[in-house]
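subagent[fold] <- orchestrator: predict structure for attached chain, return tokens only, no commentary.
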Amino acid sequence: MRFLTCGDGGVLVELADLDETLRVFAALRSATTADKPRGSVLDAVTQLIPAARTILIAFDPLLASRAGIIAAVRALDVSADVCRRSRTVEIPVVYDGEDLADIARLLGVSASQIIARHCARAWSVAFVGFAPGFAYLTGGDEIFDVPRRTVPRLSVPAGAVGLAGTFSGVYPRVSSGGWQLLGHTERTMWDEHADPPALLQPGDAVRFTPVRERAVAAPASCLSDSGESDNCDAKIRFHVSDSPESDKQKAGKRCGPDSAGVATAALEAVRPGLLTTFQDDGRRSADMGVTGSGAADPCSSHLANALVGNPANAPVLEITGGGVRFVAHGDAVVAVAGAPAPITIIGNADRNDGVSAQHNAEGRAHALERTVVIRQEAMLLRDGEAIEIGVPSSGLRDYLAVRGGFDVERSLGSAATDTMSGIGPKPIVSGQFLAVHRPEASPSITACGGGDGTCGNSVGLPEPWPEHLPKSGEITELHVHLGPRDDWFTATGISDFLNRIWTVTAQSNRVGLRLQGECSLERRDAAELASEATPPGSIEVPTSGQPVIFLRDQPVTGGYPVIAVLTTRSLNLAGQLPPGAQIRFRCLSDSGESDTWNRILASQLSDSPESDNQESDKQRAQSQEHKEVRQCPDCSES
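subagent[fold] -> orchestrator:
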């Protein structure tokens, strides 16, 4: 076993092969199940993500140390064989992939031979990762060892069948990806309403069969495996229920002081901006290939909820880039936190002067009253009033919370929108009505109050807008722990990574920040990395040599080396980086102090106690000098 650092709360265990990986994973899963006696250091483990030759162990650094986790893993009995299932799943494939000819040339055979060899053997599902239902298949023809694309595609269609290294796989949904594409299938690989949602499970045998593309009278998504269309009406009904019109009907029936329903208010999205989504603290379903998602800046989402008296995990609206307008239907207490932005409440100046009805009768327009909000605070939004949030002056994302929480459907235990895989609620659209729970009726809020089951939390105290959030054209320092794959890069590559200035490009989103620098990071060789876990904050370096910082909608696993991982606090700060912002990475030592690559090399070469003490003093001084301004009590670094 080899143990590699993976951020401030992770250890990547590297193993000899897939069989050993499965044995160690089975032992770890058995040791961390809820029915085991407590008291072990492995109680601190929060997530296990197996891959081809590695297992990511995520743990709470407040409950255990990295050294303690490693010692516990070494003590496990991993001698037992793993029993695997033997179900066979047939997947028909139209071999029309845009990379098919290139793969044939690379491997020195014809395209027809590629197809024949891809179908000749049964593949086996080794593990599920990258995206929901994305199964990594092994055991194919020995000829298949294909490098990933130099630059990953921004969009790969659902059902695309591809190769990467010695693996084959099928993209369950539209996503980015760097696999070489052979063709496509019409089989549904992921259905979150099914049990289990993923078509392929670890241990399944998979046989690909070549078919010709055919025209069908009904959409493929409405057909069952038998070709029947019984589920089509249900799917159509589901889409209708997600429409703004039905949201209006749904909210309208439940809003108002005399309503007997669950919701007493709703917000209408008049102008939803560039991207507005529901977010909370996310999911823990990596075993199905589902990423965590959740708020890109959880400190700000927690603050917004605290300001209105909600639990930290209550769903909020994450607003990217501002420019939004919502109208209240029924009274609601709201708060906005995150990036400093102009906020205005627009209402009728004469609503309380007793002459509104007379004005309406005479057909005269109401005077508009505008209230400017200058800090992060709870606000009463009365029926018919609008709240406008402008473009942030710094940072990128704001969070709008409403007392009682939004009445939104959860998927896999979370209301978070996963923009990469499409799990969770769809992004907010113009005209959509967003229903709000009554505070005393919200099941997620009953625990915050007294014995009568009502919410006893009062609104929080106002707070000023945060200072020194990232701006376009200005440099922001992000703290990182090198690894797990920093040894794949030369000393020059590491030095360039830490000493160069990197710019956030416009090709960035909730999945990740694509960076652009003056030079590409130099690797030791061009070997292919077997797919392994990529937690949020991972800084992956594709073949182009330009880094990508993964945010909250990141793939669960990836196939490019991760040079470093952001600290938890810097990950939250990265969620506020706008396009054009500049980044400098600063390396943290195991003690958490700020360091540079040259200092790391110097500390390895120097044995002088005096020089060590001088260097330590200098590091502490620089660590204090560059201490990040934003403080978040529930987002601490180890």
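orchestrator: received. Logging for downstream: The first strand starts at residue 2 and ends at 5. The mean pLDDT is 83.
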